[in-house]
């Protein structure tokens, strides 16, 4: 009886510490927001080729971690990577480029039980020309929105007071191109990709 109890306790503890594998397809024109994930440290991302073209999965400029699948060709081929450091990891296909195959893996230390629902954070239009509209989740306290260019340089920072549910940010002073936007509310971190025309 004691042995069974100890075994049940052991498997219970192991299951609490088990990490998650997140699956993404990997094919031409697979980009944000479908290719973006927020995961916990220790989680694994598995990219599966859904076409028979050659692709890579590799970190882009400003990535916290360094990873590279090398060139892989073939339908249903797979590349996996386990993320161990908290941070933001833009990635792309080195063959087809950021405009055709790219995304962002945001790694957080540990998601709370009251997990951030990223679908309730809405920004539009994307691509944007002058004014970016942002609708924030209902339960967010004060935080920041920070814009980074592709080199990882911070180009804009906006404080958000608690209670604000919508805001408009003038992006007309930024050059055309791709940017990463980091939303941070206490321990909650979400990163999105934005194109400015």
UniProtKB/TrEMBL annotation:
Signal found in the keyword field: yes
Secretion system C-terminal sorting domain boundaries: 123-196
Pfam families: Copper-bind, Por_Secre_tail
Record keywords, A-Z: Copper, Metal-binding, Signal
Signal peptide: 1-18
Domain Blue (type 1) copper: 35-107
Gene Ontology molecular function: any one: electron transfer activity
NCBIfam families: Por_Secre_tail
Name listed for the protein in its UniProt record: Putative secreted protein (Por secretion system target)
């Amino acid at each position: 009886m004691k042995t069974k109890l100890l075994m049940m306790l052991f498997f219970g503890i192991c299951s609490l510490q088990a990490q998650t594998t997140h699956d993404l397809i990997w094919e031409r024109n697979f980009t944000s927001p479908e290719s973006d994930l927020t995961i916990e440290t220790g989680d694994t991302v598995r990219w599966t080729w859904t076409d028979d073209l050659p692709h890579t999965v590799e970190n882009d400029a400003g990535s916290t971690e360094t990873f590279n699948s090398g060139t892989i060709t073939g339908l249903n081929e797979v590349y996996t990577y386990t993320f161990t450091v908290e941070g933001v990891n833009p990635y792309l296909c080195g063959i087809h480029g950021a405009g055709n195959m790219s995304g962002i893996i945001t790694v957080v230390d540990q998601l709370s039980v009251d997990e951030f629902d990223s679908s309730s954070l809405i920004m539009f239009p994307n691509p944007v020309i002058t004014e970016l509209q942002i609708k924030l989740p209902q339960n967010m306290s004060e935080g920041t929105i920070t814009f980074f260019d592709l080199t990882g340089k911070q180009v804009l920072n906006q404080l958000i007071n608690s209670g604000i549910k919508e805001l408009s940010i003038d992006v007309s002073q930024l050059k055309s191109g791709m940017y990463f936007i980091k939303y941070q509310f206490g321990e909650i971190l979400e990163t999105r990709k934005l194109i400015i025309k």
